[in-house]
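Case 242 in the screening queue. Each case pairs one protein sequence with one candidate compound; here the compound is GLP. For every case the pipeline is the same: read the inputs, emit a complex structure as tokens, and attach any notable structural observations.

Predict complex for case 242.
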Amino acid sequence: MNIYTFQNESGFVQTAAGIIASLVNTNPRAKLGLATGSTPVGLYAKLIEMNKEGLVSFKGVTTYNLDEYVGLPDNHSESYRTFMNEKLFKHIDINLAQTFIPNGNAADLEEECRRYDRMLEENGPVDLQLLGIGHNGHIGFNEPGETLHSGTHVTTLQEKTRTANARFFSSIEEVPTHAITMGVASIMKARQIMLLIRGEDKAEIARRALTGPITTECPASLLQCHPNVVVLLDQGAGRYFK
Ligand code: GLP
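Case 242 output:
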């Protein structure tokens, strides 16, 4: 793993954006695995800026998002489809038809999981998978536990996850109880993984994930097995990596 800690926000964001922009500039038909959450918002804003300045074009790029809540309408303000459209897609020159997110409203959720896996299998692997991390070590919505799933699946969100995400909703009751998420094997198939970790509240989980034992109790620790991972930490999250 290549682990870098940044003293300021601009270095963190510019490095992350630079990695994606050089990949896309080298391969204009790149396939990107994208993530939601507050962590990549600054990166997405930087990519929008670079796109507007003509430094990178996403015309030929295809994207696959990690996860989506079950049961939120697509146009709900907190669906991950809305998040991606608002924070990135509608501001750049990407073809929206080439942006894929699991459908959390499918009539048959199990079939939707299989469909998403087939699509990843036929079109993958992604060139770069972007990841954040939950306070409990989840990646995508792969929650810690005795076992993990390899492929896309419906998962029950842990209370810790629902509580953390309640800040985006008016009350915790509104946070969905389930989500569709890519599995750990699908994530690990990416040619390269870029894990972003921000904030003092993530310092402990960053240490566990990056230097602790590899265990399903901390799904992000599995990334230690991947041959090509870059981890960017801000000053707060990087307390143990100076
Ligand atoms: C969310 C997403 C994850 C994300 C994580 C951390 O619920 N499903 O993909 O990495 O939780 O979110 P944040 O960046 O807001 O801390």
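Case 242 observations:
- The pocket of GLP is lined by residues 35-39, 66-67, 132-134, 140-141, 165 (CB under 6 Å).
- The chain has one domain: 2-234.
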